[in-house]
Automatic annotation (TrEMBL):
Superkingdom of this protein's organism: Bacteria
Domain Mannitol dehydrogenase C-terminal residues, every copy: 267-452
Family the UniProt entry places it in: Belongs to the mannitol dehydrogenase family.
PANTHER family in the cross-refs: MANNITOL DEHYDROGENASE 2-RELATED (PTHR43362:SF1), MANNITOL DEHYDROGENASE DSF1-RELATED (PTHR43362)
The protein's name: Mannitol-1-phosphate 5-dehydrogenase
Organism for this UniProt entry: Kribbella flavida (strain DSM 17836 / JCM 10339 / NBRC 14399)
Amino acid sequence: MALRRTPSTLPAPARRVDLPSYDRTALTPAVVHFGVGGFHRAHQLSYFDELASLRVNDWGVVGVGISSPRMGQVLSGQDNLFTVVQRGSTASTARVVGVMVEYLLLAEDRDAVLARLIDPRIRLVTLTITGDGYAAGGTSGRPSVFTVIAAALDLRRQRGITPFTVLSCDNLPDNGAAARSAVVAAAEQRSTELAAWIDRSVAFPDSMVDRITPVTSPGDRRWIEQEFQVNDGWPVITEPFSQWVIEDRFGNERPPLDRVGVRYVDDVAPYKLIKTRMLNGAHCALGYLGTLAGHRRTDEAMADPVIGRYVAKLLADEIAPLLPQDVPGMELGEYRRTLIERFGNPAVGDGLARLCRRGSTKMPAYLLPSLHAAQAAGRPRDLLLLAVAAWLRYLHGVGLRNETIEVEDARLAELRALAAQGPAAVLTLTDVFADLAHHDDDVRTIETMISSLDHRGLTPTMRTYL
C-alpha cells in the first residue's frame, strides 16, 4: 500500500490498517498548526482524526512547517496522509490519519500561511515549536511564527473577523502565558494598540499534552512496510497511552474534542505540574544516568536493575510527595505505575539522546523545580541531586567509559566553560539553577557524586543513595 493511493484502491493486506472512514474532501479547515513533527502527528492530529471519524467534518487541520522542507516533500507525495503505529508491549496497531487538509512551509509560503490565518473558518491556532521557540530572540527562524500570527490577528481585527484562539501544546510550565507573551511582543513591533487589543481580546488557554513519540528510524519504516504492507515515507511510532488536558477558555468556537477523550478543565496547572515533574522530570534523570551507563534507549535503561529501582524511588519518594494528591484522573500511585510501564515498553524504545537534548531548557522546567520544592520543605533529595550531578557530568561530552557523547544544547559552550571550573561554578547560573549554589550542603553532595561517578562508576554511586 502506497499512501498516495486512495483508500478505495488499497490492496487487501492493507485492510489490517485502519483507514479514514470519512470523506476527506468534505473536511473544512478550522485549525492551523505550527510545527508538524512526530509528536503533533501522533497526538493532536490523531485526536482530530478521531473527531472526523465521528463525522464532525468542520475541524480539518492545515499543517505549517517552520523551516525544513523535508516533511512537506514527503507528505506532498502522500496526499498529506501518514501512518500512526501504536506499539504496545504485546501488540501493535496502525492507522492512516487523513485530517490534514493542507501542508505549508512558513519559510517559503508565508503569504499562503497568512491567507489561511485570516480565513474566518480558522478558529484555532496550535503550536508545537519546542520550549526554545518561545525564548527571546527565538531559534531557527521561529520568531516568524509569532510575527505571522500577530499580522493575521491584526488583519482579522481590521476586517471585523473574530480572532482565533492560540493554543500552545509545548511542554512549558505555563504555555498559555508563554504564547500570549510571544504574540503580544511580536504585535508590539507593529503597534502598541494591536498588542493591547491582542492581550485583551485573544484567548491563550493553557494545556497539557502527553504521549511518548520517539524519532522514526529507517528500520521502523521497513518494519511497518513489512508488517502492515504500508509504504509510508515518514510514519510515526508511538505508544498506546495518550492524554490531552485543555483549559476551557476559548475566544472562538471550541472544538468538541471532549468527544474523543480530551479533558476540558478550569485549571490545567495541577495536571501539568504532575505530568511535567513526574514524566518529564524522570525523563531527564533517566536520560542522563542511562546515557552515562552506556544505554541508548529508555527500555534498556529501565531494564538495568539499579536504574529501574532509582526511577521508581525517585518518583515515589522525592517527586510525588510534593505534588497535589487529589487531581481528578491523576491518581499519583497509578500514574507512577503507568509511567514505569511506559518507560520500560520495549516496543517503543525511546532514544535517550532525545531525552537529553536541550538540558538547559528542560532541567529548570522539569526536574529542578522538584529539587527546589524539596529544599524548601526540608525533604529528602539525594536522588534529585544525583540527576543534577549526572547532567553536569554528561555535559563533558565523554562517557564514563571514555566514549564520545554528542551533547545538543543551545548553551553548551557556556555550560562547558563553567563546568570546566568545577560543579560549583556552573551552579551559579541562576537562570538555570535558581539559588542552588547557595545551598552549600547540596553543592558538596553534587561534587561528591560527580567525583564518585568518575572514580567508582555509575552503579556503585547509585547504590550509595538507594
